[in-house]
Every structure is written in structure tokens, then in C-alpha cells.
Design goal:
This protein has 266 residues and is mainly α. The protein has ten helices and four strands. It has one domain: CDP-alcohol phosphotransferase transmembrane (TM) domain (Four Helix Bundle (Hemerythrin (Met), subunit A)), CATH 1.20.120. It is globular.
Length: 266
């Protein structure tokens, strides 16, 4: 009886063991900015909401790298990261897009916003179940942070060009454009189209002077016109998947290697 009591105490201790602080704190920052984006959107500050989603994306990119660099990866961290991602890149951009552009469309508007959130959740669930069987060189379907980034940088793009007034979008037809746009992003997230993951460590180890100059130049461009540059960066990534798939469909198959003399005789 005494031994059983000790075992139960040991189990309770294992269950209440502390989690890794640093990577999960970074994930919490991801969740914080996602929640702050929701607050900003409900208050009508859609530009601030958009930037909060982008900041959440920065911390989402960092938490995994911090966990691997400090050897503090855990199943708890994986599950926590997925839940934070659903809030920051599913609920936050979905609600922001609805309040910004889809609300005048009534039921159709909030249903498409919900579809975006639901497809994001499905995308996360599929990713978590495929990590062991899919190559880390690419993602199957548009990653949910990229879908969220594309949605919110569209808001920044419209704001920069002055296509939004206090009463709403300049042209009422743009409500339907945003409806179709959000639907397309939802479809891409649950599609089987492959997107490059940029997870190869070799990419950042090459001693390439011109690559460094390019990165510095890109940083300067973002600093000069963040709304425009971030929008076109997100758009380039989103269309890269379908474009690559389209090119592969019409690319002629590679010629088979010539058979050896022995194979010819057989």
C-alpha cells in the first residue's frame, strides 16, 4: 500500500514537471499578438491588427528554432504551438477580414470567414499527423501562417493605396473580391499543392556574398515601404505553389537513361 502511494506521488510529480520556459514563452508571445490582433480588429484598427498578426508570425517562426537550438523540443510545445497558431493565424485574420471587408455581405461573409478558420484548423491537424511521413523540404498545402500573412498584408496594401475610407472599401465590388480571395486562401491551405519550406539549414550556411547583399537590400525595401513589399512577398509565396505545379504538369518527362548493352540483349 505504501509503495502504491509512493508511485502515485511520483506520477503526480511527473505530471506537474515544469515545461521548457524559453520556447513556450516565445509561443506565448505568438498567442499574445494574435489575441491583441483580435482586440484591435474589434475596435476598428485593422492596420494594427494586421501588423499584430505579422508579429505573431515572427514569434511562431522563432519558437521552433529556439527549441531546436536549445534542445528543448517537447510534445507539449508542439501542441501548444498548434493551439496558438489557430488563434493567431486562423481566428485573428478570419475575424479581421470579416470586420474589414466581409461584414456588409451578411451571412455569406461570415461563412467564408469561418471557412478560412476551419481550413486553417484542418491544415494544422494534417500537418501534425504528417510530420513523420512528409519531407521537411516542403509543406503540403499553404501553411496557415502564410495564409494569414497574405490576408492581413492585403489590408496593408489597400490602406497604403488609399482604397479604404472610414465608411469602408472605396468600391463595393471589392467586398466580393475579398470574399473570393479569402475562399482561395482557405482552399490552398487544405490542398495538396506543395510549398517550399525554407527549412534547409544549408541555405543559411553558404558563404555567398551576393545573397547577403540581397537580404540587406530586401530589409531596406521593407523599411521603406513595408505595406507594399510585405504584400508582394506574401503574394509571391502564395502563387509559387500553384505556379510550380502548373509548370510541372506541362514539363516534358525526363528521358530515360540509355540502356546498357547487357540490358539490350536481355
Amino acid at each position: 500500500m505504501k509503495k502504491k502511494h509512493k508511485d502515485s506521488r511520483r506520477k503526480r510529480f511527473d505530471m506537474h514537471k515544469g515545461v521548457y520556459v524559453l520556447p513556450n514563452f516565445v509561443t506565448s508571445l505568438n498567442l499574445f499578438f494574435g489575441f491583441f490582433a483580435i482586440i484591435s480588429a474589434t475596435q476598428g484598427d485593422f492596420v494594427k491588427a494586421a501588423f499584430c498578426v505579422l508579429l505573431a508570425g515572427v514569434f511562431d517562426n522563432l519558437d521552433g528554432k529556439v527549441a531546436r537550438a536549445t534542445n528543448t523540443t517537447s510534445q507539449f510545445g508542439v501542441e501548444y504551438d498548434s493551439l496558438a497558431d489557430l488563434v493567431s493565424f486562423g481566428v485573428a485574420p478570419g475575424l479581421t477580414m470579416f470586420l474589414w471587408a466581409l461584414q456588409p455581405l451578411g451571412r455569406l461573409g461570415w461563412l467564408v470567414a469561418f471557412l478560412f478558420v476551419a481550413c486553417g484548423a484542418l491544415r494544422l491537424a494534417r500537418f501534425n499527423t504528417q510530420t513523420a511521413v512528409v519531407s521537411s523540404d516542403y509543406f503540403v498545402g499553404l501553411p496557415i501562417p502564410a495564409g494569414a500573412g497574405m490576408a492581413v498584408t492585403t489590408i496593408l496594401f489597400y490602406d497604403k493605396l488609399g482604397w479604404v475610407t472610414p465608411e469602408g472599401l472605396v468600391n463595393s465590388s471589392h467586398h466580393y473580391i475579398m470574399l473570393v480571395w479569402l475562399f482561395c486562401l482557405a482552399f490552398l491551405m487544405v490542398s495538396t499543392i506543395k510549398y517550399y519550406s525554407f527549412k534547409k539549414p544549408e541555405m543559411f550556411r553558404h558563404k555567398n556574398f551576393y545573397a547577403l547583399v540581397t537580404l540587406i537590400g530586401l530589409t531596406v525595401l521593407i523599411a521603406m515601404a513595408p505595406q507594399l513589399v510585405l504584400f508582394f512577398m506574401a503574394l509571391t509565396y502564395v502563387i509559387s505553389g500553384p505556379l510550380t505545379k502548373f509548370i510541372k504538369m506541362f514539363r516534358p518527362p525526363k528521358n530515360e537513361e540509355p540502356k546498357s548493352e547487357v540490358e539490350k540483349l536481355v
